[in-house]
Amino acid sequence: MSEKKVSLLEGFKVFLSRGNVIDLAVAVVIGAAFTNVVNAVVKGLINPLVGAFGTQGLEEYTSCLKAPCVTNPKTGRTEGIEILWGSVLSATLSFLITAAVVYFLMVLPMAKYLARRAQAQAAKEGVQETLEVSELEVLKEIRDALLAQQRGGAGGGGTTGGRGAGE
């Protein structure tokens, strides 16, 4: 039974030591901090702007599904069924702003960087392929020259006699 606990602990250590877990933890922490910034922008900037065009802040917009929607001042409870569509709109705006910032400031630049990197790698591979082809051509010429020398020294003619390199 102790072997199983040791192997579970070793497996857990391997899991934690992978880079993906660390990256995920950093992403969660940064995401939480970024969410606070976006929520502050929505509540401090967008909601008041909507309030300037409307009659109240965005989160204050509600509709009453079942009348009367009256808040009891003694208990603080609302009687009736109230739909808080302003809060939903505010949360939707927060999501859209977060998605736009992540896309335009993180995803798009990373995609462009990776595309440039892939293009540079492809160009490097093309140059490498050209060098390999050039080396192959030089080696073929050396082989042909050596074959011509061997035939010239042994047979005396010095020509290949029209025969190819695949003899």
Topology:
Layout: H1 2-17, H2 19-53, E1 63-71, E2 78-83, H3 85-155
Helix pairs in contact: 2-3
Describe this structure in words.
- With 167 residues, this protein is mainly alpha-helical.
- The protein contains three helices and two strands, in the order ααββα.
- It has helices at 2-17, 19-53, 85-155, and strands spanning 63-71, 78-83.
- The chain has a two-stranded antiparallel sheet with strand order 1-2.
- Helix 2 packs across helix 3 (85-155).
- The longest helix is centred in the last third of the chain and has 71 residues, at 85-155.
- It is elongated and about 115 Å long.
- The model is unreliable at 156-167 (pLDDT under 50).
**Major sheet characteristics:** 2 strands, antiparallel
Measured between the Cα atoms of the first and last residue, the distance is 70 Å
Enumerate the strands of the largest sheet in spatial order, edge to edge or round the barrel: 1-2
Total strand segments: 2
Order of helices and strands: HHEEH
Q: What is the structural class?
A: mainly alpha
> Which range best describes the helical content: under 10%, 10-25%, 25-40%, 40-55%, 55-70% or over 70%?
over 70%
Radius of gyration: 37 Å
Roughly what is the average pLDDT, rounded to an integer?
Answer: 78
Morphology call: elongated
Low-confidence stretches: 156-167
Q: Report the portion of residues in β strands.
A: 5-15%
Task: Enumerate how many helices there are, as a single number.
Answer: 3
